């Protein structure tokens, strides 16, 4: 009886860990998708398609395989590298490295609006 309760508790713990890995890698994938492509070059990191492929594979692996296999661990390492190294470098860029869909002017320079020397 105690063995059954312990195994069920361990199974629930693994399920929650797997769910947390899926959410974590999904967040990293979405975050990588909304960053500007030139931001990756400006931050001297790999390209945006590279990170989208790596993080997409990590997300799919976390969906398919259980946490006890080695593939989700590799995906977790790739996601941690993105979150700890690449994401902060992109966020430190002017504008946060995000795509701009509105705002700004055609006369805006990298440090604000250009007023023609006035």
From TrEMBL:
Keywords attached to this entry: Membrane, Transmembrane, Transmembrane helix
A Pfam family: DUF2516
Top-rank taxon, per record: Bacteria
Transmembrane annotation, as ranges: 12-30, 51-84
InterPro entries: DUF2516
Region (Disordered) residue spans: 90-118
Protein name: DUF2516 family protein
Keyword Transmembrane included in the entry's annotation: yes
């Amino acid at each position: 009886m105690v063995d059954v309760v312990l195994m069920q508790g361990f199974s629930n713990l693994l399920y929650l860990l797997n769910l947390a890995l899926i959410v974590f890698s999904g967040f990293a994938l979405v975050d990588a998708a909304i960053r500007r492509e030139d931001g990756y070059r400006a931050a001297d990191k790999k390209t945006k398609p590279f990170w989208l492929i790596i993080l997409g594979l990590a997300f799919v692996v976390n969906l398919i395989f259980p946490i006890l296999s080695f593939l989700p661990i590799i995906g977790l390492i790739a996601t941690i590298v993105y979150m700890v190294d690449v994401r902060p470098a992109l966020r430190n860029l002017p504008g946060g490295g995000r795509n701009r869909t509105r705002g700004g002017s055609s006369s805006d320079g990298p440090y604000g609006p250009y007023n023609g020397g006035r």
